[in-house]
Amino acid sequence: ADAVKKFNYEPRLIRGVERTVVACIGDERSHHTLESLVVFPQVESVTPIQKKYKLVSREYQAHDSVLDVAGRKIGGGTFHVVAGPCSVESASQTIETAKAVKSYGATLFRGGAFKPRTSPYDFQGLGREGLELLQQARAATGLPIVTEVLSPQDVEMVAACADVLQIGARNAQNVPLLAAAAASGKVILLKRGVSGLVDEWLLAAEYICLHGNTKVILCERGIRTFEHACRNTLDLSAVAVAKQETHLPVFVDPSHAAGRADMVIPLARAAVAVGADGLLVEVHPDPATALSDGGQQLTPKQFGQLMAEIRPLVEVMGRQMGEA
Ligand code: PEP
Ligand code: MN
After folding, report:
1. Spatial separation of the C-alpha atoms in residues 266 and 279, rounded to whole Å
2. Potential cystine with 130: which of 58, 76, 88, 216 (Cβ 3.0-4.6 Å)?
3. Ligand nearest 292 Cα, by number?
4. Pocket around ligand 1: residues whose beta carbon is below 6 Å from it?
5. Best of 190, 255, 256 to mutate for ligand 1, by most ligand atoms within 8 A of CB?
6. Is the C-alpha dihedral spanning 68, 302, 171, 230 positive or negative?
7. Which residue CA neighbors atom 8 of ligand 1 most closely?
8. Rounded to whole angstroms, how far apart are CA atoms 12 and 155?
């Protein structure tokens, strides 16, 4: 109790038969952390009760955040679908896909110019040239652009071409990148880390908010588990928890979760039912020739099927399909 007082917390003792609980009243955000007290032999464990995130929480803001992306309202009862290829590969591939996904009802276009590939020998993306092709796709269709930024020094260049900056699973806890992306003032689509806890995901969003940008879309994209029938395991529980804990829009990426095209539509249906605010789906005119993630990309026709299947579910869930 003395150590607790020294850290400016108010101790309240609860004496039991086998152990004594010391409830410590105070705010960890302004005081020394108590977790270090586990070093004392008489302390069995230190359990924080207060949640670490604040700005993203429903306690801070009860109502859903509604983000504006080029006039589209994200969150708060709408359901938007972001679609496009994993990688931007050529002008025709990009523009053809953008036109096709728009015709089926996608309201934002995605495409990677900077690709975070696991192997250095795989296609790394067209970089700056890719960004130019994305701008052409925007000019041709009017769809706002979602694209990934890999490093803080690229933020300015990518933000000049993108409506939404994507932070990928591999960078989900890259604090300098979160800060630089936040500073751009753009809407940020934040993927959950490959092995990220929900808390870690929400705290990454908290970093962005703390850097003055509360325009964050959370995106669950499947996590690494023991199960390998699909590339990852889509964690629908995390979507439900994130919806309950935070006021931010929560999207689901069934493509990276599944890793295989034949599982994308069923996972997309489940995402609607669990209460997601939108989807991020990979679509390629000819998945067999794709330079990345070929196995999971839908053809435009399959994407049309996905949209047809989710539309009635979105309605049953009391939501409105996002409008352009
Ligand atoms: C992507 O969206 O193409 C991508 C690389 O996603 P993730 O970061 O979720 O792997
Ligand atoms: Mn991909």
Report:
1. 13
2. 88
3. 2
4. 86, 112, 116, 168-170, 191, 221, 256
5. 256
6. positive
7. 168
8. 48
For atom 10 of ligand 1, the residue with the nearest CA is 169
Instruction: Using the mean position of ligand 1's atoms as its centre, give its distance from the Cα of residue 53 in Å.
Output: 25
- Please check whether residue 217 is in contact with residue 190, taking contact to mean a CB–CB distance below 8 angstroms: yes
| Closest ligand relative to 168 C-alpha | 1
What are the tokens at 44? 């069995």
Q: Distance (Å, rounded) from C-alpha 199 to C-alpha 290?
A: 34
Q: Which residue reads 């708060």 in tokens?
A: 76
Which of 270, 264, 281 has the alpha carbon at shortest distance from 238? Answer: 270
For ligand 1, mutation pick of 118, 188, 191 (most atoms within 8 Å of CB)? 191
Return per-residue pLDDT of the chain as tens, 324 residues.
788 888 888 888 888 888 898 988 887 766 777 888 999 999 999 988 778 899 999 999 999 999 999 999 999 999 999 999 999 999 999 999 999 999 999 999 999 999 999 999 999 999 999 999 999 999 999 999 999 999 999 999 999 999 999 999 999 999 999 999 999 999 999 999 999 999 999 999 999 999 999 999 999 999 999 999 999 999 999 999 999 999 999 999 999 999 999 999 999 999 999 999 999 999 999 999 999 999 999 999 999 999 999 999 999 999 999 998
Q: What is the pTM of this model?
A: 0.92
Q: Which atom of ligand 1 is nearest to the CA of 280?
A: 2
- For residue 171, the ligand 1 atom closest to its alpha carbon is 8
Contact 227, 195 (CB under 8 A): no
Around 253, how many Cα atoms within 13 Å sit in the side-chain half-sphere? 32
**CA 2 to ligand 2 centroid distance, Å:** 54
Task: For residue 297, give Cα distances in angstroms to 40, 260, 271.
Answer: 54, 7, 17
For 119-139, the DSSP string reads STTS----THHHHHHHHHHHH
